[in-house]
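FIELD: query
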Amino acid sequence: MAYNERNSTYDPSQVVVTFGELRLQGYADGTVIKVERSEDRYMLKVGLDGEGGRARNQNRSGTIEITLLQTSASNAALSAKMTLDEDSASPIPPEPMIVKDLEGNTLHAAQNAWIQKSPSSEFAKEIGERTWVFATTNLRFYDGGN
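FIELD: result
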C-alpha cells in the first residue's frame, strides 16, 4: 500500500507584494492581503421551467487590498505616488502589481494597477492600520496553494 503524505508550511513573511518598483512592507496583523475579482466568472440565467444556461463574463477587473501598519514606510511611498497622480497635469500611468507566495505557487498579477482608494487615517493609543485599495482592469488570478 502506497502512502503519500504531503506536509506544507505556510510562512506569511514569504508573501511578497510589489507595486511598480515598490516592494511593500510593514504589514499589519491578521488579513493583510485580499485579492478578488469584481464579478463572477459566469452569469447564470434560469427560466421559469428550470432550464438555464451560463454566459461567460469577460470582465477581469478586480481589487487588491493591502493593510499596513501605521508606522510602515510603505505608506509614505504610496502617498507620494497617490499625490503625484492626483496633482499632476496628466495622471501617472498605471503600474504592474504582483502578489506572490515565494514558497508556493500562488501568483496574482495586474499589468496595469492604480491606487483606487487611500486609507482612512485614525490615531489612537496603539499603533493603527492603513488599508490601501488598488484596482485593475485585468487581474490574473492563480491560487496555487502552498
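FIELD: remark
The domain at 15-142 is CATH 2.40.30 (Elongation Factor Tu (Ef-tu); domain 3).
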